[in-house]
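User: Can you help me understand a structure? I only have the sequence.
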Amino acid sequence: MVLDHIIPVSAGGETVAENLCLSCVSCNSFKLNFQTGFDTESQRETRLFHPRSDSWHEHFSWSDDSSEIVGVSAIGRATVNRLKMNQPIMLIARREWKKTGSHPPPGVDFGSKSME
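Assistant: Let's start by predicting it. Here is the structure, written out as tokens:
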């Protein structure tokens, strides 16, 4: 995990707690300084998920086998696309983690305000 600026420094984001979150290295490497992604359903650029103010369950769900993150809103779909959250290596990792009982995390609302 790495620290990510939710609003990139290049876009005026500050290095303060409210603008930082933990991100996996892979997602962070695809986010770069982007703040939007393409939603294939609406065919529009859409803002990315904000981990400090958006609720994970309003924008994402798990596939039936819990290996894929599914965008259930324009924000979710744009974020899944921009961050390439379902790369083959991640699908393999999630399937292996599920075998050990460590995935998906039970009862965790990733990014909800209650996590602060």
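Now, to help you interpret it: The CA atoms of residues 41 and 74 lie 7 Å apart. The chain has a mean pLDDT of 90. Let me know which part you'd like to focus on.
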